[in-house]
Amino acid sequence: MKLRLLLPLTCLALSAQAATNWREVMGPSEGTIPAPYQESVEWRDDLDAAFVEAKRENRPLFVTFRCPPCDQCSWFDAVVLRGSQRLTPLYQQFVTARITDAKYLDERVFKVREFQDLDLSWWGYFLSPDGRIYGVYGGKDEVSDQTRISEEGLAKAMERILAHHYDPRRPAWDIDGDAPNLSGNARTPYDFPGAKAYLSEHPKLKDQPCLHCHQVNDILRTEKMQSADFNKATDFYDWPFPENVGLELDVDQGLLIKTVEPGSAADQAGLKPGDTLVVADGRKLFSSTDFRGALHRASNGPAKIAVYYNRGGQPAQAVIQTGEGWKATKNYWRKSIYDGPIGPSPGFFPLKGPNQGKGSLSLKAYTRGKPNHPATKAGLKPNMEVVAVDGMRDDLDTRQFMTWFKMNYAEGDKVTLTVKQGGKEQEITYRLPRS
Question: How many other CB atoms are found less than 10 A from the CB of residue 326?
Fold first, then answer.
C-alpha cells in the first residue's frame, strides 16, 4: 500500500482544527527548553498554588493522582515518587503535584470523562500553566498493572511534553483544548448527576478518609445508567486498547507501532510496523495513553478516527474505520465492573470452588449476610458448589463470574443455579429482587 502523504488539510478534517498546519505540529520543535528551575523535586499538594507557580515560571505541570489504600499501581507510584537518574532531571522542568484523594478531582480542570481511566489507582496529567490538558499517562489490563506503563514510557512522554510546551508556535496551533473556567466553586465527584443515587446506596461514603477513583467511576456509571441512551452491552467498555483497532505499541517508546494485525482496522487504514503515531482525534499524542484516550472518546459504534503518523521521517495520514462492538475488552479486572453498581448480585459471593481451573464452573457460594435474598429462600445454602447458572458452565474465577453476571442480568430476571452437593446436582430457581 502506498504511503499516504499529507494532502491539503481540507482532505482530512480533524474535529474543529481543520485549519491546523499539521506538518508543523508533526515536525521537530522550534523551542528551546530552559535550564531546570528546581534543584530538588517537591510534590506539591496545593493545586492552586501550583498553578500560580506554573504561570509565574511558564512551566508545565505534572499532576499525579494516587489512591494509597489500593495495592494496584503502588509499584509505579513508588517509582514516580522516588525519581531516578532518568526521571528526576525531567521533574525539575515541571511544577510537580500529587493528589491522594479523588474527592478533590475538580472536573473543570481534570476532565475525567474524557481523560482519566478511573479504575486505576495511579494516573498522571500534563497541564499547561493555564490548565489546558496536554496529555495523560497511566494504564493497566487484565494481565497486570505493569504491562501498559513503564518508567521509560513516562520519561518519553515528558520529553515530548516539554518540546511541545516550549515550541513558540504552540499557541497559534490551538490544539490543547480550552483553558478551564475556574470562576465559582469546584465541580467534584459529589456534584456529578449520578452522585445522589449512588450516595443513597452508599450512605457512609462521605465518612471514608478518602474517595477512591473507582468510586468516582461508580458514580459515573450510575449517571450513565440513568441516561435515555444507556446500553449495557456497549457503555461499560472504557479505554479500549490499541489492539482493539489492530495495533501493538511499544511500551517504552509509547507511540511506535510494533505490530499490525492483518485485516484489522489499522491494517486497512495503511498503518505499518515502524510507523510512529503523532496525532489522533485532533490532538497531539505524547504517549500510548493519549492514543487510548482518542479511542476512548470515539463512538461506541462504527467510528472514523483520523490519525497522522511519521513513516521514515515523512508525515502521512490515515483514517481508522471501526465496526460495531469494536471497543469490547476483557473488563473483569475493573472494580467498577465486577463490584460496581452496573447490575444485581446473584445472591451470594462466589469463592473459589474445589474444581476451579479444571475446565468447568466451580464456585463456592458465600451467603453470609443475605438471609432474606430470594436465592437463600429458594434453598441456596452456605458453601454449596455452584456448577452452572442457566446452563452456563464456563470456568470463571470470582471477578470473571461477577462481571459476567452483572453484564447479563437485571433486576427481576429469573435465575436457575445448578449446585452440587454430595456428588449430586440439583437446581435452585429464584427471581432477582427489585430495589
Answer: 23
- Spatial contact of 38 and 97, defined as CB atoms under 8 Å apart: no
pLDDT of the residue at 207: 86
Question: Could you give the CA distance from residue 305 to residue 293 in angstroms, rounded to a whole number?
Answer: 12
- Say how far apart CA 138 and CA 147 lie, in whole Å: 11
Residue that has been written with the C-alpha cell 471501526 in this structure: 322
What contacts 27, CB < 8 A, 6 or more positions away?
A: 315
Beta carbons within 10 angstroms of residue 327's beta carbon: 24
Q: Which residues does the chain have with pLDDT short of 70?
A: 1-18, 369
Give the single-character DSSP code of 401. Answer: H
Return the HEC string of 119-157: CCCEEEEEECCCCCEEEEECCCCCCCCCCCCCHHHHHHH
Provide the grid cell at 102: 479523588
Extents of the domains making up the chain: 1-15+241-326, 31-173, 343-431
1-15+241-326 falls under which CATH superfamily?
Answer: PDZ domain (2.30.42.10)
Region of residue 177 (left: phi > 0; alpha: psi -120 to 50; beta: else):
left
CA dihedral 140, 293, 80, 104 (to 10 degrees): -100
CATH topology of domain 31-173: Glutaredoxin (3.40.30)
Residue 114 vs residues 136, 232, 239, 281: alpha-carbon distances, Å: 11, 19, 9, 12
pLDDT at 18: 54
Which CATH superfamily does the domain covering 343-431 fall into?
PDZ domain (2.30.42.10)
- What does the alpha-carbon distance between residue 351 and residue 364 come to, in Å, rounded to a whole number? 5
pLDDT reported for residue 355: 96
DSSP class of 11: G
Distance from C-alpha of 337 to C-alpha of 218, rounded to nearest angstrom: 8
pLDDT per residue as tens digits for the range 336-348? 999 999 999 999 9
pLDDT of residue 206: 84
DSSP track, 298-351: S-SSS-EEEEEEEETTEEEEEEEE--TTTT----TT-HHHHTSTTS---SSEEE
Does an H or E element contain 32, and which? Answer: none
